[in-house]
Amino acid sequence: MEVILSLGIGVFAASGIWLILRPRTFQVIMGLSLLSYAVNLFIFSMGRLKPDAAPILNTDKPINPAAYTDPVPQSLVLTAIVIGFAATALFLVILLALRGLSGSDHVNGREPR
Amino acid sequence: MIAVFLHHIMILPIILPLITGAALLFVNERRKLLKAALALAAAGCLIVIAAILVYQAADLAPRADVYHLGGWAPPFGIVLALDRLSAVFLLMAALICFCALLYATAHWGRQGAHFYSFSQFFLAGVNGAFLTGDIFNLFVFFEVMLTASYALLMHGSGLARVRAGAHYVVINLVASACFLIGAACIYGSAGTLNMADLAAKTAQMPADSLLICHIGMGILGIAFLIKAGLWPLCFWVSATYSAASAPVAALFSVTGKVGFYAALRLSLLLLPAGAGMRAALCQILFCGGIITLLFGFIGVLAAQSLPRMAANFMLVSSGTVFAAIGLDYPALVGAALYYILSSTFAVSAFFLLVEPVERSQDAAANVLAVTMEVYGLDEEEEEDEIGFYIPATLAILGACFALCAILLIGMPPLSGFIAKFMMIIGVFRPQEPAQAAVLPSASAWLFILMLALAGFAQLIALTRAGIRIFWAPLETAVPKVQISEIIPIAALLGFCLTLTIAAEPAMRYLDSMSAELRAPAHYIRSVLGSAAEKGKNGG
């Protein structure tokens, strides 16, 4: 599982960085989304991978910490997703404004010659 | 009773702007005057609160005042921690924000929607970043600040601003990704994100997880240094700052300081003097600072327009402080902080001054015309502008320009000079009595040389600009400047004057702050130790 996860993070991050460096705004925004997926998965993995374990304590039974997964990265990731989502949405609006004002979808607002 | 009250004041710099900003959303856009008055009142209250906090932090020193959000004890709960460093930065941010808002009432506040709300949210994010004692919480406040700043940067619209804004947003989203990766690495290796707890844990960490923790800190540092504009992460600075409208650029001069604050706080806390990685970090900061300084003053000389020149002053200022911090001399930290206060006030005054000065020239008028076109503003809106215009405009603008120049160059008698003088003295002051005979190192000489060169370059650039603007025969009409535009500039320069006159008490405050920062044990103990006596103070 570790290999699959790290490969996934790596592929997401690599494609994200490649797309961010592209000249078209749509590619940049896709790149930013992919990069944020990679980051979110990375944060999640920092709580150590543990299958079949819940992050929420069940107080009916005596508590054995080893049976639970770390809840902190999950809450961090939730916050990061929300903030990243909002920032990406805002960015999309800015890109539309740039497209409207400049008539070009190049990141510099004008077509290269 | 009073003590409890003072303790709870600490949360106000975050919630007061948040509430004001949210409340302002419900005031109709047409009632500009009411909006401006509310925003100004909130910013004014914040100045008072920050001043109280400055005194309170000094009272409690060397302990930090710790506020448990929601009553959860650290290291599990999120805390706010107030010490002298955060208090001074809070006061600086509140003063600059007030001046920028007052300036905006004259003209810019009418150029688009929700300017005052965004400025309040921006202030909430900045204040939160100064107060928080938790790395992830720092990320959240950074994002609050940045999201507001995206909107503020594009305030007034126009192609130049939107284009600069798109670049700014991409850069900051990538920086946020770096921030998250760094924070995750730190959590993965140390199991905590509370700054004080982290400092206590890194002291006794096995080598392999310490390595990951240091990598995390390095990636985190990239995010801070992008904000602070350290070379080679500073190429966005001049494009962004020169595209922003005048009050927004003045507000943005605080953003860089947030990055600097976070870098300083975490580096002194997590890599205390004597730690292995500290020397490497200081070297990076020093080299980066010197190159930023070089880049900045070449930029100042090459700048074609005043806004671009002002943006390069930002770079010179951040390069200077990073080089000073990177030298890692105890006496330099206090002097560098004094320099930050002085230069930030001077740079924001310059940003505010640039727009009225350029109003007589055509370039600025064109930008304004574009803005009005986009928003469909008619000429009659123009007449709607209430306000008194000042007499003897050119004389007053010229005097302000000269004062700004003296402050930025670092000529006597104002605070810019005192700051540079104390930084140079700090290099020569021995660290320990035993080292009294040791001459400053080569890097210290390089620092002094660059400081002098930067001052000289700024002198040339500002003299040239001053002659071109104020002494050249006027072909266009004398600019009309409102009183509410000139008062904030005068106030910012007045703060520098106050810093000059009160240099001794200010330096005493800053010096004891730097002593505190270099001995973070008190900070750590007051955050972690107060967990036991939580019930007493409440949260």
Task: Write a brief caption for the model.
The complex is a heterodimer of chains A (113) and B (539). Chain A is mostly helical and 113 residues long.
Describe the structure.
The complex is a heterodimer of chains A (113) and B (539). Chain A has helices at residues 2-20, 25-45, 71-102. Chain A has 113 residues and is mostly helical. In chain A, α1 runs antiparallel to α2 and α2 packs antiparallel against α3. In chain A, 27% of the residues are buried. The mean pLDDT of chain A is 86. Chain B has 23 helices and 2 strands. With 539 residues, chain B is mainly α. Chain A binds chain B through residues 20, 25, 28, 32, 35-36, 39-40, 42-43, 46-47, 72-73, 76, 79-80, 83-84, 86-88, 90-91, 94-95, 97-98, 101-102, 107-109, and chain B through 136, 139-140, 143, 146-147, 150, 154, 157-159, 162-163, 165-167, 169-170, 173-174, 176-177, 180-181, 183-185, 187-188, 193.
Count of helices of chain B? 23
Kindly state the number of beta strands of chain B. 2
- Roughly what percent helix of chain A? 55-70%
Distance between the termini of chain B: 15 Å
Strand order of the largest sheet of chain B: 1-2
Mean pLDDT level of chain A: 86
Instruction: Name the structural class of chain A.
Output: mainly alpha
Salient structural properties:
heterodimer; A: 113 residues; mainly alpha; B: 539 residues; two-stranded antiparallel ribbon; 2 strands; 77% helix; disordered C terminus
Topology of this structure?
The complex is a heterodimer of chains A (113) and B (539).
Chain A (H helix, E strand, L loop, with lengths): L1 H19 L4 H21 L25 H32 L11
Helix pairs in contact in A: 1-2, 2-3
Chain B lengths: L1 H8 L2 H14 L6 H29 L4 E4 L10 E4 L1 H23 L8 H17 L3 H19 L5 H32 L4 H8 L4 H22 L6 H9 L2 H25 L5 H27 L3 H22 L2 H29 L3 H14 L3 H6 L8 H17 L5 H14 L13 H30 L11 H19 L1 H16 L2 H9 L4 H4 L2
Antiparallel strand pairs in B: 1-2
